[in-house]
Amino acid sequence: MERTINVAIFSTHPIQYYVPWFRLLHSNRNLESTVLYNMIPNEDEQGVGFGVNIKWDIPIMEGYKWGLVKNVATNKGVSSFFGCVGWGISKAIKRIKPDVAIVTGWNAFYLIQCLFLAKLFRIPIILRGESNVKKKRGYVASYFQYRIIKMADAFLYIGQSNKELYEHYGINADQMFEAPYFVDSDLFEKENSIQKNEKKEGVCFIFVGKFIPKKRPLDFLNLIVKLKKEGRAVRGIMVGDGELRSEIEDAIKRENIDVLLAGFVNQRELRGYYENADIFVLPSDSGETWGLVTNEAMLSGLPVLVSDQVGCVQDLVDSGVTGFSYPCGQIDKMLKQAKVMIDECDLAKMGENSLNLVKTKFTPEKTYQATLQAIGYLLKN
Among residues 12, 19, 9, 11, which one has the least CA distance to residue 292? Predict the structure, then answer.
């Protein structure tokens, strides 16, 4: 009989995208996995960046074992590095007695604490971060990142650009395990609480995300404006909210373009908005370490137009097959690719290709299997 392997998973707070992964680990009879959070955000804290209070309409605290480490940060929050500071991590580690620790990044002080303490207790560490080589860093930031990464013993990489970061810092191939970033495909296949409307004439583009500078939502509007000035029948849907909303409203009114501002839309309703569009657009800069809304759009059967600085572009954008990419911020090149999609491509076929790609390669099961492989590697070595 195989012995039970204790696994401690350190995460700052509940993230809806991680939940299927945690549940699969919990379902394995040979594992005793516990997720240790540092914070359970309230509706106001969850909505930081959107400018509205958010309460998820899907269960994100069920189906797996979790605990809470006290957060002693002065200004608590999940959007700043020092917003999560743990007190009692050592006590939690001694209680769980983990054979393996999984740390979900290094973007919060709590996660750095967990890395150091796991190292102190000589617990093998699996690191699953989202950073990549696209974002330019100074010497101090690069050296800090190098030292943090070198603390881990195995790595779950979410995509090609993330893998290249680990390679850049000298991580060996046998230490890395492919764990493609995913969204819950069951949710997007089963849930659609708004009726799909009969589409209007013309091509509809959709943007989904916070209205904040790194997402570059005004680039999306500029694309609609330029297409309209060429006499094309186009419209847009913008799902989200945030600090740039007033600028967006002003631009829509000034340019007299047909763009629906849907506001923040919860998980169960999102697919309905995707299905009322023809092309998904993500104009973000290198601050977008992956861009999971791209996965969502592709699961909803949409072709995609994605900036080359978005982390997922190498993995999800197969030029002319699932969509196109363009140089971030270069609106004229963005426009050129959009016109190619409208004039020369079978959008329905591209949407089918998108769906097939994410349904077969970017799944919770792939990440789960990669995690088991990483655990096996560490216990063997």
Answer: 19
Residue 197, pLDDT > 70, answer no
**Domains of the chain by range and CATH?**
5-182+363-380 (3.40.50.2000), 186-360 (3.40.50.2000)
Q: What is the pLDDT of residues 154-185, one digit of tens each?
A: 999 999 999 999 999 999 999 999 999 999 88
**Rounded to 5 degrees, what are φ and ψ at 298?**
-70, -35
CA 39 from chain center: how many Å?
19
- The H-or-E segment that residue 355 falls in is helix 347-361
- Distance, in Å, from the CA atom of 60 to the CA atom of 43, rounded to the nearest integer, reads 14
Q: What is the DSSP-derived secondary structure letter of residue 30?
A: T
70-71 and 5-10 strand pairing: unpaired
What pLDDT digit, counting tens, does each position of 321-342 carry?
Answer: 999 999 999 999 999 999 999 9
Alpha-carbon span 334 to 347, nearest angstrom: 17
What's the rounded Cα separation, in Å, for the pair 341 and 362?
24
Determine the Cα–Cα distance for residues 270 and 15; give it in Å rounded to an integer: 17
Among residues 334, 375, 353, 379, the alpha carbon closest in space to that of 102 is found at 375
β-bridge partners, 237: 206, 260
Other C-beta atoms closer than 10 Å to the C-beta of 56 total 16
SS3 content of the chain, % helix, strand, coil (to 5): 40, 15, 40
Q: How far is CA 216 from the centre of its chain?
A: 17
DSSP 8-state assignment for residue 337: H
24: left (phi over 0), alpha (psi -120 to 50) or beta: alpha
Which residues fall within 8 angstroms of residue 341, CB to CB, at 6 or more apart?
279, 303, 305, 323, 324, 347, 350
pTM of the model: 0.92
Q: Which of 320, 239, 245 shows the shortest CA–CA distance to 276?
A: 239
